[in-house]
Specification:
Layout lengths: L2 H23 L1 H20 L25 H18 L11 H24 L5 H24 L4 H26 L1
Helix pairs in contact: 1-4, 2-4, 2-6, 3-4, 3-5, 3-6
Length: about 180
C-alpha cells in the first residue's frame, strides 16, 4: 500500500473518532431528548391511570444513590443500566396491558438506540469505573427484580402493567433531573 492510501485510511479513522467523540460529548442533550420523547410515549401508550388500579399502588423505592456519584461517567453507566432494565421489562408479556402498540414500539426503539449510544460512549471510558458500575448494577438489579416479580405475581394483569408504567415514568423523570444537573 502506498503512502497516499495510508494517509486516506488515517484520515478516515481520525474522522470516525472525532464524530464518535462529538456524539459522546452531546450525550446529555441526546438523553434529555430521548427521555422527553419516552415520557410522551409512555403517556400515549396507556392514557390515564385506571381508577380500579389505585388501591393496588406499590412502592418499589428506586435506589437514587446510583444516580448521585461524583463522576459523570459513572452516572452514564447507571443510566445505561436503567435503560436496559426498562427495555427488558417492556419486552415481556404485554398482552394484558392494552396499550397503543405503535407508541410501545417507538418507546422500545428509542430506548434501544439510546442504550447502543450509551454503550459506545461508556466502553471508551470504561476501564476504571468497573467497581462503581458493579455496585450500581446490583442495586438496580434488585430494584427491577421487584418490579418484575410484581408483574409475575399479578400475572401481568392490566393494573400491574399500569403501576409498572407509572414507576418507569418516575425513573425517567429522575434520570432527566440528573442529566439536567450534569449539564450545569
Amino acid at each position: 500500500m502506498n503512502t497516499f492510501g495510508l494517509i486516506q485510511i488515517g484520515l478516515i479513522l481520525s474522522c470516525t473518532t472525532i464524530i464518535s467523540s462529538l456524539q459522546c460529548n452531546h450525550l446529555p442533550l441526546q438523553q434529555r431528548k430521548v427521555i422527553e420523547n419516552s415520557l410522551r410515549l409512555l403517556d400515549k401508550m396507556g392514557k390515564t391511570f385506571p381508577q380500579q388500579c389505585l388501591r393496588e399502588k406499590m412502592s418499589f423505592k428506586f435506589p437514587t444513590q446510583v444516580l448521585q456519584p461524583r463522576q459523570k461517567e459513572t452516572v452514564g453507566v447507571a443510566i445505561e443500566e436503567i435503560f436496559q432494565h426498562i427495555f427488558y421489562i417492556f419486552s415481556k408479556n404485554l398482552t394484558l396491558a392494552a396499550w397503543d402498540g405503535t407508541a410501545l414500539d417507538e418507546f422500545q426503539n428509542g430506548l434501544y438506540l439510546q442504550i447502543e449510544q450509551l454503550e459506545a460512549c461508556i466502553i471508551k471510558k470504561h476501564t476504571h469505573y468497573h467497581r462503581s458500575k458493579e455496585a450500581s448494577r446490583l442495586k438496580l438489579k434488585k430494584y427491577f427484580k421487584k418490579i418484575d416479580s410484581f408483574l409475575k405475581y399479578k400475572q401481568h394483569d392490566l393494573c400491574s402493567w399500569e403501576i409498572s408504567r407509572a414507576e418507569m415514568r418516575r425513573c425517567l423523570q429522575l434520570i432527566d433531573k440528573v442529566t439536567r444537573k450534569l449539564k450545569n
